[in-house]
Structure formats: C-alpha cells, structure tokens
Amino acid sequence: xxxxxxxxxxxxxxxxxxxxxxxxxxxxxxxxxxxxxxxxxxxxxxxxxxxxxxxxxxxxxxxxxxxxxxxxxxxxxxxxxxxxxxxxxxxxxxxxxxxxxxxxxxxxxxxxxxxxxxxxxxxxxxxxxxxxxxxxxxxxxxxxxxxxxxxxxxxxxxxxxxxxxxxxxxxxxxxxxxxxxxxxxxxxxxxxxxxxxxxxxxxxxxxxxxxxxxxxxxxxxxxxxxxxxxxxxxxxxxxxxxxxxxxxxxxxxxxxxxxxxxxxxxxxxxxxxxxxxxxxxxxxxxxxxxxxxxxxxxxxxxxxxxxxxxxxxxxxxxxxxxxxxxxxxxxxxxxxxxx
Length: 339
Known about the structure:
By secondary structure, the chain is of the alpha+beta class. It has 2 domains: 2-90; 109-336, BirA Bifunctional Protein, domain 2. Helices cover 42% and strands 19% of the residues. The protein has a 7-stranded mixed β-sheet, sandwiched between helices. The longest helix has 37 residues, at 54-90. The radius of gyration is 39 Å and the shape is elongated. The model has no long low-confidence stretch (mean pLDDT 86).
C-alpha cells in the first residue's frame, strides 16, 4: 500500500509541475483528489486492509493528500502570478484617454407634467382611468349628447375607420364607460392620446394628449367645479394664480365655461407671454348634461356632476414656456435635455 501511495504522489507531482495553465491544474486535482480520483479510490479500499493496519495506512494516505494539496496550491499561485503578469503586459490602459460619459435619461416634458397633474388629482381623491384609443362612435359622440349630423362632429375632423368605429377625438368616452360600469360617487381623471385631422403647426397636431376629469355625486354644484379647478391650477402654476370663467357651449355639459388663468409670467399685468391680456385660456368645463347622465344609467334627479378637459401639450407649453408644440415630438436631444 505504501508503494502504491508513493507512486500516486510521484505521478501527481509530475503532472502538477508539467501543468501549463489553471485549467490543466484543476484536471490534475480532480483526477487525484476528486470523488473518483486515485487517492479517493485508495480510501474506499480501506475496508480490505487489516484492522490493525488501518491507522498506519490512514496516516500514509493523509500525508500523501497533504503533499499533493500543498504542491497544487504552490503551482496555482505561480500560474496565477504568471497569468496576471501576462495580462498587465498585454492589456495596457492609456490613462490620458477621455473617460466615457454615463448619460442617464429622464422623463419627457409631457410625462413630467402628466405625472404632476395625476399627483394633484389623486391627492384630492381622484382615480386615474384609461380607455381604448380606437373607439365606437356611440361612446365618442352619441353618449356625449352629440347625435348624428351634429355640427360638433364636423368641428373635430375625426379619423373614421368605418361608420361605427373611429380614433377617439377626446378622452370623454372613458367617462361614459366609467358611468356605465360604476355607481356614484365617481371621482376620476382620464389622461390619454387622442386624434384629430389637424395640420401640423406650432399649436396643432393630428395626435396629441388630453386629460379629462369628472365628478358625479349627490349635491354637486358649479361651486364645487370652481373650487376644484382653482385648487388644481394653484398647485400647478403657483398659489398666486387666479381663475376666470367665461360662458361657452359644449354639447355634453350645461352650463358650460372656458376657464382662464392669470398669467403666471406677469401676474396678470399683461406681457408678451399672455399677448398683453393678463389671462391665458387653459381648459373647458361645465356641469354634466342631464341627458348624458341619463344615457349612462344615472338618475339626474338624484345625482349631478361636473367635467373638465385639459390639453396636456397646452399646459406643458405654458409651464415650460415653449413656443412650438412640434419641439415636443422631434426628439432633439439638445432640446429635451434642458428639462
């Protein structure tokens, strides 16, 4: 047995000294010390050794293992040092080269304003609801008190897919869907992309975004609408912002109004930004028409509500003092990285 162990030790040390890499060295370790290695096979055959000789044989095996392991560790350090030296010689780093900049992106201006608007309204107890961009004519027009041949249909220059399906011109259809599916009280905003056949210029695009809001409950009045929108614009543009409501007409609200805010650039005195008027038109609003409530399954004798619609791009342009809507979609890095 001693001679067998001596032979194993000599063969292992010879293979270790002839190893030209860490992979080869690991192969030797496995072949000798692994679960199916030569030295492990000797240990498994200990049951064939006479009981009185087992302590001595066990000592020989442990001494052989220790010598082989010491030689493996010694050779591993030599090979690692040689490999490191080789890498240092070949992987030369020019410390005079400029470093690569790690450029981290950020949200688009539209996204930043939308998130701010959502934070304001969710803080007032509203939920954010989304709906389909490809919509039925019924939800986009009829359920909003805009029947067939109504002039409002011509004003919106709609993209029709067929006579019943279209690309939505507003996010108001989401409000109708919510009223059909949920019982009052309802407090919601519906942000999303809308489509109209407009020519592209500084203030128009065939694809843009709206944020529409609605509240339905018992005892809702125009005062609630005014208070809510005043709170909204003061959080968005500053506490000094004032509001002004002008009579208007929307088929789905009665009474209806356009809301102006005092120019946050000049404080209402008149400047180039507000075209000398001191006021800036920002959104349309009104009390939900009783017929709209009735068509959605809500009793107008018991419930009332208000609704409003804001153009996301419009308030983005105002908030960041951008004079051309097209800049938001040209993906010019020189422009976007300013925000």
